[in-house]
Design brief:
The complex is a heterodimer of chains A (about 80) and B (about 425). Chain A is mostly helical. Chain A contains two helices and no strands. The chains are: A mainly alpha (about 80), B alpha/beta (about 425). At the A-B interface, helix 1 and helix 2 of A face helix 9, helix 10 and helix 11 of B.
Chain lengths: ~80, ~425
């Protein structure tokens, strides 16, 4: 269930925003040209991890939306 | 010749036994003396307009003794009317005396027993072979062929007749018959004397079985007739009195049957109508009682089974409605909660337009990924450069950082290669040796 915020973990919304913000930040760092190649490589790897996390969140949201749609169509 | 010899008038005196006036006007009678009897013929002129002396009276008559050739016997042809006397004949006197005695004994005019209407067997007391017996048998067979007969022979006139008749009656009484029929045919009036005998009359009166007496023909009368349960004028009449006429019985039975059927049909019809009426009344009464009982039960026992079932049903229906409402409400809450959670999951997404928002975010995400990948050093390496890392993962930026024998990790666009430093070679040294 996506209500992970009820058991003390970061809420999915916060997690989503965090990942997206990290991605934005990594993009800006990479575009600045201040990083050496190794740091840039590490930033890219870090960005890839954020990317996969955001992708997982979006996939979960899509599933929830699909359930809502089915509930709307079936009725109570 | 004999007629001529007696062709002179004589006076005769005797007891008038019988006197019959024929339709032609002639008179025929019988005179009886102490031990003899003779017929008397009276011409019509001696019969007309005269009061005839009664039977049994002592009379005088003047006449001639003539032979009746066709009959073969002598008779008195009266030459004058019968002259009555005030005297009674010995036979008549004896008969009167017997009658008085028998009446005094209660033998005559005693209460008559009814005859069985449908006798199964009849004991006939008569002279076997007589015309009377033939008449009786023929009549019984004609009228009631199912009736059995037992014949008890007796002498019906003359000497020994009295004892014979009594013996035959005794036999008939124990024959198992239902009825006794004592009879004889016609004859001279004095031929019936045995039936005036007090012994025979008493035996007739004491018969165990109902008894019919028929002696002579129409007009003949004996004391036995008056002692019998039923007196008939002729043997045929006696037989007719003894047994019913089968044809009449059959008609009566058919008539009774018809009446019975009609009565039964009428009774059935009445009973059916009455039954229908009673059934309808009973049905109405039952309905009324049922309605009252139902009302009483409803009033006195509200917790009856029907009431309980009705209440239970109503309660269950309420529970069902409540459950349905609750489920609806819960489902609405759940949907609302899911919407809320979905919105919380991606606050920057418009959940109501979820798919479009997600597509937008996915595009945004892909753009970021492409931009980051475009900035990746991997692209520089693809142009022929390589990146050397020491065992600590730090980039080797100078030859001074390595010594011979160090293991380096060489990063290439498509992977990494582990390498061992043979000899560091600075750019200067490379120029001298070059």
């Amino acid at each position: 269930m996506i209500a992970t915020h009820t058991n003390g973990k970061p809420a999915p919304a916060t997690e989503f925003g965090t990942h997206m913000a990290a991605l934005e930040r990594l993009r800006r760092e990479l575009e600045s040209g201040d990083l050496d190649p190794l740091e840039a490589l590490e930033r890219c790897r870090e960005a890839e991890a954020h990317y996969r996390a955001v992708d997982a969140i979006l996939t979960r949201v899509e599933r929830e939306l699909e359930k809502l749609q089915q509930a709307d169509e079936g009725g109570p | 010749m004999l007629g001529k010899r007696f062709a002179y008038d004589l006076w005769f005196r005797g007891e008038l036994i019988d006197l019959v006036s024929a339709a032609s006007g002639h008179g025929f009678g019988v005179l009886r003396g102490k031990d003899a009897r003779i017929d008397v013929y009276l011409a019509p002129r001696f019969m007309r307009n005269r009061e005839l002396p009664p039977t049994g009276s002592l009379v005088l008559v003047r006449g001639r003794l003539q032979l009746w050739e066709r009959g073969g016997r002598f008779q008195i042809t009266a030459c004058g009317p019968l002259l009555p006397t005030d005297l009674t004949g010995a036979r008549a006197e004896a008969r009167k005396a017997a009658e008085r005695q028998l009446r005094a004994e209660g033998v005559l005019d005693r209460p008559r027993r009814p005859l069985p209407r449908f006798p199964a067997k009849i004991a006939v007391v008569t002279s076997v072979g007589s015309a009377a017996m033939r008449d009786v048998r023929a009549t019984i067979r004609r009228r009631a062929s199912w009736v059995g007969m037992s014949l008890h022979n007796c002498v019906v006139q003359g000497r020994g007749a009295t004892a014979s008749i009594i013996a035959a009656l005794d036999s008939a009484d124990v024959s198992g018959a239902d009825l006794v029929l004592l009879t004889r045919g016609g004859g001279a009036p004095d031929a019936f004397d045995p039936f005036d005998d007090p012994a025979v009359v008493r035996r007739v009166a004491s018969s165990r079985l109902p008894i019919i007496v028929a002696v002579g023909h129409e007009g003949d009368s004996t004391l036995a007739d008056r002692a019998a349960d039923h007196a008939a004028s002729t043997p045929t009449a006696a037989a007719e009195a003894a047994v019913p006429d089968g044809q009449v019985v059959r008609r009566e039975v058919m008539e009774h049957r018809r009446r019975l059927h009609a009565a039964a049909r009428a009774a059935c019809s009445v009973a059916r109508a009455r039954g229908s009426h009673m059934r309808e009344a009973a049905r109405r009464e039952l309905w009324q009682r049922l309605r009252l009982e139902r009302e009483r039960v409803r009033r006195l026992a509200p917790r009856s089974l029907g009431e309980m079932l009705f209440r239970l049903l109503r309660s269950e229906r309420k529970r069902l409605e409540a459950a349905r409402t609750s489920v609806r409400r819960l489902a609405t809450v759940l949907i609302r909660e899911q919407r809320r959670r979905a919105s919380a999951l991606a606050p920057d997404l418009i959940v109501t337009h979820g798919e479009a928002a997600i597509r937008t975010d996915r595009r945004r995400l892909e753009e970021l990924r492409r931009a980051i990948r475009a900035l990746s050093p991997v692209h520089v390496l693809a142009r022929g450069y390589a990146l050397a890392l020491d065992v600590h993962g730090r980039a080797v930026r100078s030859c001074d950082q390595v010594r011979p024998g160090d293991v380096l990790q060489i990063c290439l666009p498509d992977g990494e290669v582990a390498a061992v430093v043979a000899a560091p070679m600075t750019s200067d040294r490379k120029g001298k040796h070059g």
